[in-house]
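Observation: inputs received (chain + nicotinamide-adenine-dinucleotide).
Thought: call the complex predictor directly.
Action: predict_structure
Action Input:
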Amino acid sequence: MNFLEKNNIHVISDLSVISNAILEGKYSQIYVLTDENTNKYCLPLLQDALVDYEVYFFFLEVPAGEASKDISTCASLWESLSEDNADRKTLLLNLGGGMITDLGAFVASLYKRGIAFYNIPTSLLGMVDAAIGGKCGIDFAGFKNQIGVFQNAQKTYIFPKFMETLPEVEFWSGMAEMYKHALITDSAHWAALKMVDSKEVTAQLIEESSAIKASIVVNDPLEKGDRKKLNFGHTVGHAIESYFLKKEKPMPHGYAVALGMICEAHISVQKNLLNLVEYDEIEEHLKDKYDFPTIPEKDFHALIEYMKQDKKNEQNKINCTLLTAIGSAVINQTAEEKQIVASLTYLFNE
Ligand SMILES: NC(=O)c1ccc[n+]([C@@H]2O[C@H](COP(=O)([O-])OP(=O)(O)OC[C@H]3O[C@@H](n4cnc5c(N)ncnc54)[C@H](O)[C@@H]3O)[C@@H](O)[C@H]2O)c1
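Observation:
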């Protein structure tokens, strides 16, 4: 049994292995939560794989997109479960990207004080990040992940083949979290990821990236210390994502994180933590891979306001994780407003 399996995370090439855990769990009902895309592209694969095992599903579907990660969607899912008399021995399979695993895990964690759920991530971002580590929650009052709990999935099954139908933009969104894992812990992994040029990231790289996330969260499940390293790129990134939530075209999570990583790497340079050569390498690679929209200077204050709401802040200071090198991060760093503005100015006015 490898490290991931010991932590109930399985990278699989055959979906039928899920039947073992389902049958062993003796669940009274099994629900599958999807969005309209994972319902169309991923659910048939799961159903085909389980057809011989007498596993019967009830279906829950929500519209695709971050807007479904909200309290009204939770209420309608809890209503459906209640109307069906779903009991505490119910299992929820969260079949989708990070939106579905965050939402489904939150719904399962609170329904009747908690029912079992398995995460079956279908996006790259879900596979290497969102489906691992027990953070689940929803957006609220315009803020990302404002309401949530820590609750681990009983099982997480990573089936890289789901990526065949994943749109290119979603692939690159997931790659951003893989870059982050490499930048905070492993320069060799960063070098390997830099070679990936198309949707064909290998199952091995996915497994390595998931293992980086899993090893960090296993050692610090409640984010008291080292888990904060995973927030690299997310202080600025979440603010950018929240900012674009209010625009016509939301920005995919990973794109916002990629922008956030450039800014936070720039802040690392301003604080003499990271050298300019490594900063340039990060900026050049990420700008080459992502087509970023611009943010006008007049809106920088709005981004700072979002950052002031960040859950990681303490004593009204904007707290972030910064880089000391490619492959090494330092937590609990204060970013001054003028340093943030300098990084945004550098990025958007270059
Ligand atoms: N809990 C955590 O630790 C954590 C970590 C990172 C991100 N997140 C959350 O994850 C969410 C972003 O996740 P995401 O990028 O996966 O977004 P998503 O779930 O919205 O998926 C992106 C798009 O891809 C589609 N899709 C997913 N899998 C597909 C497939 N196999 N084929 C075709 N289409 C597919 C979805 O329908 C959606 O339209 C955000 O809400 C973010 O806050 C959570």
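Thought: report the result.
Final Answer: Residues 35, 37-38, 41-42, 64, 66, 69, 96-100, 102, 122-123, 125-126, 129-130, 133, 135, 144-145, 162, 165-166, 170, 173, 252-253 surround nicotinamide-adenine-dinucleotide (CB under 6 Å). The CA atoms of residues 82 and 111 lie 9 Å apart.
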